Amino acid sequence: MILILNQNVSEELKNDLRKEVTSKGLKIHESQGEKTTIWGLVGDTTRIDEDQIGIHPAVSEVKRIQKPYKLASREMHPEDSVVEICGRKIGGGHFDVIAGPCSIETKEQIIEVANDVKNSGAGLLRGGAFKPRTSPYSFQGLHGQGLELLLEAKKATRLPIVTELMSTSHIELFGDVDVIQIGARNMQNFELLKEVGKLKTPILLKRGLANTLDELLMSAEYIMAGGNENVILCERGIRTFETSMRNTLDLSAIPMLKKKTHLPIVIDPSHAAGLRWMVEPLSLAAIAAGADGLMIEVHNNPEKALCDGAQSLTPADFDALMKKIQKSVEFFRELR
Ligand code: PEP
Ligand code: MN
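^ thats the input. predicted complex w/ manganese (II) ion below
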């Protein structure tokens, strides 16, 4: 249930309403917009009589939300959410690009790529230290050592870093990470979602390979219900009957998610197609469809990459793409 409060409601009336709601065992989640204050009532809302609460002098409107997710819903928070990462912003008209290799391999590799993507205009550096690989015999990442190298690259470039957390048992290693990625395969690892919900670190939540948008939003809800509202959604391609690409990028997810939620949406064209030459058209299409950011894999030597070389751009290709991205973002910003 959502309560839209009257404008300029007094603190006294608000307190009175708060008492009434909390006495029924419900928690209040307040969203303060420019003009309106919205309360999301979390818990068993059947204990509240809609008509009775509707006549409280602090209340302007009562809405029962049918959707199973509340905190993530647009109804709860009509304005776009803006997630701040070390002074950079994603969402609500702020666009940014996350770039870097699939995996951190060596100090030279990550520092070189970090400098290159920074010089091309990327706002955040990505790199995996814990890699979810289909085969147990494939490179699994450098783990703790990889995180240390990523932190060195952060120090060298001052770019905030994005890296994947695969297990609750590694969480204490992620204290200096600026954005924690929950990968596609862990989108419904509910224990992991609950743990990152206890943090304040922004979370990049990737859509599962075969998950619906409502399932993605329920996973976001897990994180938000724990108290971490800094969630960025990521569409990275889904399983379809098409086999000529690694996955099918669901561009329709962008406008549909914009309707359903206030959370920012980042598109990952690299994992979507799995093909280097498709990264540019998919990036530009994502901007046209309203994405708040892109995540692009870049490697200094894609042919020798230990993971996802076929979809990784060279730093030169990335530089050329960034110029087109920047122009497209400006063009569509004016058009909207
Ligand atoms: C990644 O970003 O490196 C990754 C493994 O992505 P996904 O979880 O989308 O496959
Ligand atoms: Mn990858």
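The pocket of manganese (II) ion (ligand 2) is lined by residues 102, 271, 297, 307-308 (CB under 6 Å).
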